[in-house]
Write a structure and sequence with these properties.
Blueprint (H helix, E strand, L loop, with lengths): L1 E2 L5 E2 L4 E6 L7 H5 L3 E7 L8 H11 L8 E6 L5 H20 L12 H21 L8
Antiparallel strand pairs: 1-2, 3-4, 4-5
Helix pairs in contact: 2-3
Length: 141
């Protein structure tokens, strides 16, 4: 079991790993060893995730989630399979952990009387300043 939060634990059978060759420089090691890992997690069918967590996860994952609700993460930062595997798992748990936090609801507030007065006083001052910048007009009194 992979513990994400106190209430969410993922089974290792839910996570599918494929080792692939990493792109980029690295010489002969890159050409011979499949050190990058592609991790797949079916979030849509996971019993550990509630509907609300899944919806937030879909938003957070973005293009990393397929239409079927499968999260695909590729880790190729390190030269070894083990470290890339740990990195991918860590990124997955961090993503789910972030989705597990419900957003705080905004309480609508009204501006206080003193803040309304400050705003109108600032507007009055700005208007007076702009009035001083105008050219003197003999018709104005």
């Amino acid at each position: 079991m992979i513990r994400v939060t106190d209430s969410i634990s993922l089974s290792e059978t839910e996570i599918e790993e494929h080792f692939i060759r990493a792109p980029g420089p690295g010489g002969q090691n890159v050409n011979k060893v499949a050190s990058a890992v592609q991790l797949r997690f079916d979030a849509a069918n996971s019993p550990a995730l509630s509907g609300a967590v899944f919806r937030r996860l879909r938003t957070l994952a973005g293009s990393r989630m397929t239409r079927d609700g499968v999260i695909v993460l590729t880790a190729n930062q390190f030269r070894s399979q083990i470290r890339n595997r740990e990195d991918a798992l860590e990124r997955l748990t961090a993503l789910i952990r972030e989705a597990a936090i419900p957003p705080t609801r905004r309480r609508p507030t009204r501006p206080s009387l003193s803040s309304k007065r400050r705003v109108s006083e600032a507007k009055r001052r700005q208007g007076a300043l702009k009035k001083q910048r105008r050219k003197a007009n003999p018709n104005d009194d």
